[in-house]
Amino acid sequence: xxxxxxxxxxSLFLISRPAESADTLRKLPAPxxxxxxxxxxxxxxxxxxxxxxxxxxPDKVLGEILWAAWGVNRSDGKHTIPTSMNKQELTVSVLxxxxxxxxxxxxxxxxxxxxxxxxxxxNTQEYVKDAPLQLVYAGERSDxxxxxxxxxxxxxNVGLYAASAGLHNVVRGYFDxxxxxxxxxxPAAQEVLxxxxxxxxx
Length: 202
Ligand SMILES: Cc1cc2nc3c(=O)[nH]c(=O)nc-3n(C[C@H](O)[C@H](O)[C@H](O)COP(=O)(O)O)c2cc1C
Hints:
Helices cover 31% and strands 22% of the residues. It has helices spanning 2-16, 39-45, 59-70, 144-165, 177-183, and strands at 25-27, 91-96, 99-104, 109-114, 133-140, 168-172, 190-199. Bound molecules: flavin mononucleotide.
């Protein structure tokens, strides 16, 4: 009898578990860590450029943008940006036409937050509505000074990658951060700090 109950319990548990499918988890291609323009050239070309083609970015480019922002670049799990006391507290949300995702640096993948396109929440300036990708950086409310620095390091890396890869990008703080945090379903301990629009030139 006990055996039967245990087996019924496990069958129900397995049936009710959400399937981890390609629809909710999207693995990104590994970045080409030997490519790109020389650093001095990328620094020289870094700038905010605000006209965007609405064309979706290829997964390879999306993966390299996210790796630049917050990827793991060493076998000990540390990142492309430094973090205060190695706390590794930064959330990078990835807002695309096909839904809203969270970047998981450990396995370089995207995890679905919602199938909704929430980019319109950030369209507080006309030019930004065409951008195929909006990144939203969030950090710990209780450590806001360091959280802001982490976000700044990440958006600067993305700005340099954009200069290297011929993409346009602009960092943007002009939007309703609490509304975006709610749409992202962020825990109350986290706060949305800044966003960044990225795309191919128009
Ligand atoms: C923290 C921060 C917030 C910004 N917010 C906005 C914004 O809301 N809208 C916008 O059009 N540009 C925004 N910018 C872009 C700046 O206007 C831009 O970086 C500045 O004009 C200097 O130009 P450059 O990036 O080409 O050197 C922001 C930049 C930073 C660093």
